[in-house]
C-alpha cells in the first residue's frame, strides 16, 4: 500500500468567538473540500463525497444550545446515527484540515473539546466483504467534560496516555453495525493506528533505522467492528496521511512526496507495554 490522496485538501485556521462562528467555519471548510451542505442558521448536515460504491456519510454540525458546538455522524441514510456528539468549543484557536472523505479539527494538545477526527477510510480493493465504514472520535465525552481525553492529537489509539485521561466520544461503523464509545477501560476495540512495535510489547523498540532515522508507514485504522470490547480489526487507511515512528512536536511542518505536511500527534514517545511511539501526520497541500 502507499499514501492515499483524496483530492482537494482544505487547510484553514480559525478562531470562532461564538458557537455560530464555529459552525460556519466548519461548514464552509467542508463545502470547499467537496461536501454538500443542507440546513440553515446554526444547524447543517454535511454529506461527504463517495470514495467507493456504498460509502458515504453525513456530519451534522450544529449549536445544540449548550456551551459548545456539536458534531454528530451517521450513514447517508441516517439509519445508524451517533448517540454521543463530538464537542468543539468556541473562542479558541483551531485548525481544520479536510478533504472529500475525511476531516481533522485540531487545537491545543493539552485542552479538551478542541480536537475531532472523522471520515470514511480508504478501502483496499481486496476487502470486498466490508461494504462501508465510518470512524470518528473527539477529545471530550460531552458538553460539560473538562478532562482532556485521548485522541490522535495525543496518542495513536485515542485512549489514556501522553497527558490524556480515558477516551472521549467515538463513533465506529463497519458494514451495517455501529457502536459508540463508552470511555470504559474495557474498550479494547477502540480506534487505533497500526504501527511497528518491534515484535515485543514489553519495550518501545524497533521503531528506527540503524542511522537513527525514523520510518514512514501507512496509517492503517483499526477498531472493533461490532462492540467496544471486541477485537480491533483493520478497517482501512486514512486519507492524505502517514504515520512516522518517532516522537515529534505537534504542528511541525515538513515536505514529503511533493506535498506539504504537518505533525498532528504531539510528542508521543510511547510507553513500554502500553502505547506505541509515533505520530499521525496529515498532508495540507
Please mark out the parts with pLDDT under 50 across 5 or more consecutive residues, or reply none. none
H/E series: EHEEEEEEEEEEEEEEEEEEE
How many β-strand runs? 20
Radius of gyration: 17 Å
Number of helices: 1
Q: What characterizes the major β-sheet?
A: 7 strands, antiparallel
| SS strand fraction | 25-35%
Binned, the helix content reads: under 10%
Mean pLDDT: 91
Looking at the chains present, what oligomeric state does this protein adopt?
A: single chain
Q: Using the alpha-carbon principal axes, give the shape.
A: globular
Global structural class? mainly beta
* Distance between the ends: 21 Å
Explained architecture:
The chain has 285 residues and is mostly beta strands. It has one domain. The chain is built from one helix and 20 strands. The strands form four sheets. A seven-stranded antiparallel β-sheet has the order 1-7-8-9-10-11-12, with helices on one face. Strands 2-3-4-5-6 form a five-stranded antiparallel β-sheet, covered by helices on one side. A five-stranded antiparallel β-sheet has the order 14-17-20-19-18, with no helix packed on it. A hairpin with a 2-residue loop joins β11 and β12. The longest helix has 14 residues.
